[in-house]
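Reopening: structure tokens for the pyridoxal-5'-phosphate complex, inputs below.
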Amino acid sequence: MAQLSDRMRALVQPHLASIEPYDPAFTPTRINLSANENTYPLPPTVRTAIDDALSATPLNRYPDPMSNRLRDLIAARGGHSRQQICVGNGGDELLFNFLMAFGGPGRTLLNCPPAFSEYEFFASVNQTQVERVWRDSVTFELDMPRTLEAASHANMVILTSPNNPTGNLVSAQEVEQVCEACPGMVMVDEAYIEFADLGSSVEALLPNHPNLVVLHTLSKAFGEAGVRCGYVVAAHDVIDVFAAVRQIYSVNVLTQAAAEVAMRLDVMFEPIVQQIRSERERMFAALQTLIEGLGAASGELAPAVWPSQGNFLLLRVPGAADVRTRLRDEYSILARDFSAAPGLAGCLRITVGTPQENDEVLRALSQLLKEERS
Ligand SMILES: *Cc1c(COP(=O)(O)O)cnc(C)c1O
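Re-run output (same inputs, fresh job):
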């Protein structure tokens, strides 16, 4: 990742001098399964409704700062009130604003890695100290005793459910315990919740836990990663904070229009989500079979694939970094390489795509892994 020039290092705020921006390592490929996007085409009815809404949207007027029409649609879907919702320019903006509002110098974020790398990036930009309680190195379950202990003196906690990149859920009981232990704010990032078993969301805890914030995005299940829209659900006074710190026009008119259609026609996404879930199980079984035949090279951890509640699978394979490069260069398939990330040695993350994309991944991986072994 590009470093700042010496001249700029001297001029930026001191804590930004050695910042390392998030690098999605994007390369154009035929099959991009690296960013957990929804790779299925939008349902034609939805696409048409979006196109109609966009062409009917005046561009010369500023957006509604609070996206109230969209807030009402989101609130109605989830059984919330408008005052419990704040919309952002992607979930990322809300994560940033969460750190900006509740973090800062002298404050601590509790993170439970391996998790989404943006949390620590936004913490560092906001001069927020990070305390880490690592998940179990085999199952990636939370270490609850240590998590609760750390939460008891943290200003903020972020838990991801389903977790990216490990795919497992955090239970409502665990979230409840963390909310009770933490004197500060607890965010549960539910970016992938639509792909999880029904009833996995922790939103039902909101009425009894005023320090809980639940994050959502339209980038994953709703296939609008390019639209940039996310939202948080929380108590009114928490939403007032998000509303107070945000850039008032960050959610533009086109984003609001496209997101409103997705929320209004949300049932049309259900067949796609169901298909991704069943493809995920098909891929999981196929990868397990593929991996069973591979022995661990000396000094390497045994190959593995983890069950997932998201639209992606984490797998550990011999020569992971090489496998990822060869997938890209020889098959034009882009996967995400985590093999150098702490706690994820030898791991790749692959988004569950369309049946055809998944078949190509399986074909490529079975060839590559055979070659890596010989
Ligand atoms: C994708 C993702 C988000 C939000 O992404 P946006 O596109 O900014 O809405 C948030 N958290 C996790 C864990 C994600 O993977």
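The chain is about 40% helix and 15% strand. The pocket of pyridoxal-5'-phosphate is lined by residues 36, 90-92, 116, 160, 164, 189, 191, 217, 219-220, 225, 230 (CB under 6 Å). Marking as resolved unless the reporter disagrees.
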